[in-house]
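Re-run with default settings, no changes from the original entry. Doing this only to confirm the output is reproducible before filing.
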Amino acid sequence: MKKALLFLAAVALLSSCAVIRPGEAGVKQRLGKLDDAVITQGTIVYNPFTTRVIKESVQTNNLKLAIRLPNKEGLSVDSEISILYRLEVDKLPTVLENIGPNYKDVMAAVFRSASSDVCAQFFAKDMHSGKRADIEEAIKEKMEETLTPQGIIIEAVLMKSIRLPIGLSTSIEQKLQAEQDAMRMEFILQQERLEADRKIIAAKGTRDSQKILAEGLTPEIIKIRSIEAFMQLSRSPNAKVIITDGKTPYLINGQD
């Protein structure tokens, strides 16, 4: 009995355990060498004298950076950046072996290089416009060229805030306002052109209808209209003085 207790005590002294929780992955490092096997969940028993377990999160994580970005004008723009990333589970030993546990520092360095190359191709105003998404995507693609083969997956690069120098910000706002005013004036001019075209079409229609009516007023039609006018006057109970040449009536006086 004593021997069994001594054996269990010896095992307890010579072993230890680590718990791998959901969202984590662990790798054993025995005598300085990393195992190829990756444990994603459960308990790992190991000898604390010769082995240790390195645990890393494999969930989507957010690396926040505050950085100055260059632009095509040669100025610097202050920006807050969020890099959404995760470690590829199967390549966790590669990440730890080639980059080490301080892989976030490497990611920050890669971002600075990629953002400098990309942002230098855009104007400062582009960071405030719809081109921001293009800038973010271009930076992401450049980072992937370096980090994806190493086992770091870049899910998104987000430029959360852009702070331009005061003078530059005012100039950009004035330029954008001028562009909007020009677009609004072009719209007004286009509306005026359409209204002018409408009036011309309406005038042409009136002219054509009058021309058709005039062409249709033949002597025979005028005579029929005159007869109709005489008949209408003859039905009226009022006393009237009418001068006529026999063709058309002309009323010069009337009494109720």
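The chain has six helices and ten strands. Residues 26 and 39 are 5 Å apart (CA to CA).
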